[in-house]
Amino acid sequence: MGSHFTDQFTRKDIGASYFDTIGRYRVILGRLNIEKAYNHPLWLRRRLPRNVEASVDVVSMTDDGDMKVEIFGDGQSSATTNRGAYTATGYVLCMGGWHNSKSFIARKYEHGKAGIDVVSRSDVKVVKGKTYHWRIVRRGHLLEWYVDGEPFLSFDDPEPLYGRRNDHFGFSNWQSDVHFDNLKIRRLN
After folding, report:
1. Candidates 1.10.287.1490, 2.40.10.10, 2.60.120.560, 3.10.350.10; correct CATH number of 4-187?
2. Of 16, 49, 88, 124, which has the fewest Cβ atoms less than 10 A away?
């Protein structure tokens, strides 16, 4: 990947840097948009370094929230049916999931065991139309998620996902209308 990647979506189409697993992602007025992805990510084709910082601006245009990315996934996988369940290949970070009832980091399976496969919180609700700045940092076994500069959730994984099948970043959601912008990814030492 090199040491840096940025995307401000200042073009009319998705572009060759991404793999769209459902064909519904589009660029609208300088932002990446998805509605009704149903766990079909848009994968960045570039490989992630083991230690990385990724930041992105995210806004939901519906009350459901459901703003979601996957990091350290395989760059190809998605739900097996149009609206089916999905066992991710990486870590799923979701703010306002399940009709804006909780936010979480899940290691592969977002319906997994609390404290083992999933760390979550339910005290923050996504505000429709508000832009949130996410920063995701992974050093070694610790994955940290910051929202608007404040610690939001962290996942300490004794067997961190990394390698040929765990080195991609993807955008996703279930059915809400979500916009992403200002993606920045950089290698950490």
Report:
1. 2.60.120.560
2. 16
